[in-house]
Specification:
about 475 residues; alpha+beta; Transferase(Phosphotransferase), domain 1; six-stranded antiparallel beta sheet; globular
Length: about 475
């Protein structure tokens, strides 16, 4: 077993120095690393699990992604520097973005009962659309369009740096003409909460699906209402395929009507009724922002993020300096040095996948969301065309619908606790159930990140055993005295 890397004793890996092991994902281990050269830089290196190298589907998708993501060079897309192998070990290296995901940011604001300013939300979505437009227009080395679509845009896949830079951090589920390995017909990849209806129905999608996802994210930010992320997968799939939206102002009276209109157009069920391109959506957002927050800039966004994550930023600044320069700041305290730094890119290329039952037939017909009865069969509802009666077949009661995490076409057990994923890592990236307070003290209870749930379960179990034993003791005494 290799020694654990430290800033004082990094492990060499090709042109990288592995500084800290910051977690494990479905596809392998994740490291904070330093790339050498005249101007050393911090990055994230993800090493593939050895047992996956023999998996044809995994390697095929891995190589497909390499053809796509290394081409993307835009200020609003986090860079993937390289994908390859070092002595037979596959890896990918990604930009180190010092900041937080939008999901972490909004959760911290909600915890502090602070609304996201309207201008900040509009600016954030505008910059996301600029990055999407670049990706949608990307071409290969011969000038042919890649027809790239993200397909998994959500607050967990957009991050903000402390400088106010907005970056899409993962095109790992992207659809592209370069891909040779395709997603299985029964599998839909992506976050159902933010998924476009046509994608939920397994139709061929284009950039307007990403416009829809960005619209959902913006609706959530402006309405001030957190959308559900859990629940019965089949029910969530139904809602994704047949969405119904109300104006954000219904939940947040401060939202101007013109902003309602901009968002609701992006959320139209039919792609033909949405903005035709991400650029068109970005322009509508820019005009709205200039009307309602004309002086706001990315600097304001960065300052707000830095304020609400002030303690985290202080520790991350010190650790990042140590990682890049291999030196410890004089004022750096020991407890701060040991802060766990998990960049937003650490879980890139890992996504949620929903596996439908074997008898589910995906189709391009309006009625074919999973498990939905034909409304015309009972004489209720709006008539909907269906050319094949099998398309309207409801799911059997108790039919298995599995939600799992997937990397490059390979799924891993457990939707909430994937077999190879450290829960603390998921917590840091996606802000899954747990306390939001920062801990820099190495002696503090580290169960607060990720293992708190199991700690509570253990405490309840011990309490139950204690109370049960006490009750049995009293019962024995009572019987003896009778």
């Amino acid at each position: 077993m290799l020694q654990e890397p430290t800033p004082e004793a990094p492990l060499p890996f090709g042109r990288y120095q592995l500084i800290r092991r910051i977690g494990a994902g479905g596809m392998g281990e994740v490291f904070l690393a330093r790339e050498g050269g005249a101007a050393p830089r911090a990055c994230v290196v993800k090493k593939v699990l050895p047992n996956l190298v023999a998996n044809r589907a995994f390697v095929g998708r891995f190589l497909d992604e390499a053809k796509v993501v290394v081409r993307l060079k835009h200020p609003h897309i986090a860079r993937v520097y390289a994908m390859g192998d070092v002595d037979g070990e596959y890896y990918l290296s990604m930009e180190y973005v010092q900041g937080k995901t939008v999901s972490r940011f909004t959760r911290r604001l909600r915890d502090r009962k602070v609304d996201m300013p309207l201008g900040i939300a509009l600016l954030l979505a505008e910059k996301v659309c600029e990055g999407l437009e670049y990706a949608h227009l990307a071409r290969d080395e011969n000038g042919a369009p890649l027809h790239l679509v993200h397909r998994d845009l959500s607050p967990a896949n957009v991050c903000i740096s402390y400088k106010g830079e907005v970056k899409i951090i993962d095109f790992g589920a992207a659809q592209s003409t370069l891909k040779e390995e395709q997603t299985a017909p029964r599998v839909v990849i992506g976050n159902l909460t933010y998924m476009a209806p046509e994608q939920a129905k397994k139709q061929i999608v284009d950039g307007r699906a990403d416009v829809y996802s960005c619209g959902v994210m913006l609706w959530e930010l402006i309405a001030g209402h957190a959308l559900p992320q859990k629940g019965d997968p089949i029910e969530r799939w139904r809602k994704a395929a047949n969405p119904s939206w109300e104006a954000p102002s219904r939940l947040n009276a401060a939202v101007p009507k013109d902003v309602d209109e901009v968002i609701l157009k992006a959320l139209k069920k039919s792609p033909d009724e949405r903005y035709p391109t991400a650029a068109a959506f970005a322009e509508a957002l820019r005009r709205a922002r200039q009307r309602h927050a004309p002086d706001l800039t990315e600097r304001d966004l960065g300052e707000l993020l830095s304020r609400v994550f002030a303690k985290e930023k202080q520790g991350e600044d010190a650790v990042l300096y140590e990682a890049v320069y291999g030196k410890t700041l004089i004022e750096l305290k020991d407890k701060t040095r040991r802060v766990q730094v998990v960049p937003p890119t650490a879980l890139a290329f890992e996504h949620t996948a929903v596996l439908a039952p074997a008898d589910f037939l995906p189709s391009d017909q309006e009625i074919t969301d999973p498990g939905r009865d034909d409304p015309t069969a009972s004489g209720e509802g709006t008539p909907t065309p269906a050319r094949d009666p099998r398309e309207t077949k409801p799911l059997e009661v108790g039919a298995a619908v599995n939600a799992t995490r997937t990397s490059f076409g390979v799924t891993f057990e457990g939707a909430d606790e994937p077999r190879f994923v450290e829960r603390s890592l998921i917590q840091e990236i996606e802000a899954v159930d747990g306390p939001d307070e920062y801990q820099s003290d190495p002696e503090a209870d580290t169960s607060a990140y990720g293992t708190g749930t199991s700690a509570w379960k253990k405490a309840l179990l011990f309490a139950g055993v204690f109370l049960g034993a006490t009750g049995l003791g009293f019962l024995a005494v009572w019987l003896a005295l009778r």
